[in-house]
Description:
Elements: E1 7-11, H1 14-26, E2 31-35, E3 48-52, H2 60-76, E4 81-85, H3 98-109, E5 114-117, E6 125-128, E7 131-134, E8 137-138, H4 157-162, E9 168-172, H5 174-179, H6 181-193, E10 196-201, H7 206-215, E11 221-224, E12 253-258, H8 263-274, E13 278-281, H9 284-288, H10 293-301, E14 310-313, H11 318-328, H12 330-350, E15 353-359, H13 361-371, E16 375-383, E17 386-392, E18 398-404, H14 413-421
Parallel strand pairs: 1-3, 1-4, 2-3, 4-11, 5-10, 5-11, 9-10, 12-14, 12-15, 13-14, 15-18
Antiparallel strand pairs: 2-16, 6-7, 7-8, 16-17, 17-18
Helix pairs in contact: 2-3, 6-7, 10-12, 11-12, 12-13
The protein binds adenosine-5'-diphosphate.
Adenosine-5'-diphosphate binds near residues 262, 334 and 361.
Amino acid sequence: MGSGLLLGCIADDFTGATDLANNLVRNGMRAVQTIGVPAGPLEVNTDAVVVALKTRTTPAAEAVQQSLEALRWLQAQGARQIYFKYCSTFDSTTHGNIGPVTEALMDALGTDFTVATPAFPDNQRTVFKGYLFVGDVLLSESGMRDHPLTPMTDANLVRVLQAQCKRRVGLIDYRTVGAGEAAIRQRIQALRAEGVAIAVVDALSNDDLLRLGPALKDLKLVTAGSGVAIGLPANFGLRASEGASRLPSGLGARAVVAGSCSQATNRQVRTFIEAGGAAMALDPLRIAAGQDVVAQTLAWAKPLLAKGPVLVYSTAEPGAVKSVQGRLGVEQAGAMVERAIAAIARGLVDLGVRQLVVAGGETSGACVQALGVRQLQIGPQIDPGVPWCWGRDGAGHHLHMALKSGNFGGDDFFGKAFALLQ
Ligand code: ADP
């Protein structure tokens, strides 16, 4: 069914893939997100596919190999253009993986030119003279300076990317972008003539991204954060429409599982409980003590599911989380809670839940895996960056899922999510 595929995307992490798919859908492109490279063909007809990998911080050779595997699958589905998606803070180490993956994709596609820009003005990520700003400060002065895995200490993206690449890296600056498509195309020609193969592109606003879009029409490969996606659907004759985000209507019981301990999720859990929602807290120490928390939670939920949404949460305030981590170890506590929540999600779906909200990035990954969901069609946005999705679990049940990374969403996110599906 892949013959209609327009845009094939490769994302270096799971929530980043959803973010990109969401931008495409909001601009008129039907999109499906796959978890890893699918073994078979697409399950539904769509305009764009985003293959979600987990290659942001893996060794470069592994990231390259997985990205090339994704490329081959997308090409087999007939993709006309390839989009390599990375983080809007350009998360990478001195050795990669943005540069090595970009160059490997260029080699495989036989192309001598591409662009690179993490700009996403809607999310406070702008690029000016090649320097990336996060909100009002340079990337190197933002919290990313202290990131545990990918500390970003240089905001000059031309320099950062050049250090990761064999090919020459150049710049298309804000004046050129501001002058529009013809000027951008001219600049691309000039850079090519100078032997530049990858151009960092300035963008200060959505208008810049919309001016950039048409100039990228003939490129076999685009590399970017999710922002550039807003300018691409028009190249395929698509415009924003309700139709692109249409999903089957929501049926079955409703549940939220929350493993995020972010401030936003703490507020969302509180709001749900204060509104009278049925909620069950998971105590990591009881799980560690060997109590069958999964079975107990499912027995609690079973009679309630007919009455309205239930919430199961390990969400806790920083002090409580620290204390648990001190007793069990950070990673052990995390992995143990993720396993319990994923098993509860599996059990809830077996009890008839067909509308499931998951709060937490890692928690979402664990739930999707436990449910055996491989492909998700992207639907309407609940809050910025978080759409409803629709897919099939390993047992063949169709269900709606909303996968929320920790800090996303307003206080009433859970209520708002279910209201949107009614
Ligand atoms: P976020 O998107 O907010 O980062 P994640 O799901 O990615 O959320 O990460 C939260 C991590 O914290 C997970 O590994 C989860 O299992 C762990 N966790 C959840 N609740 C607790 C808790 N009460 N104590 C300790 N760790 C917890």
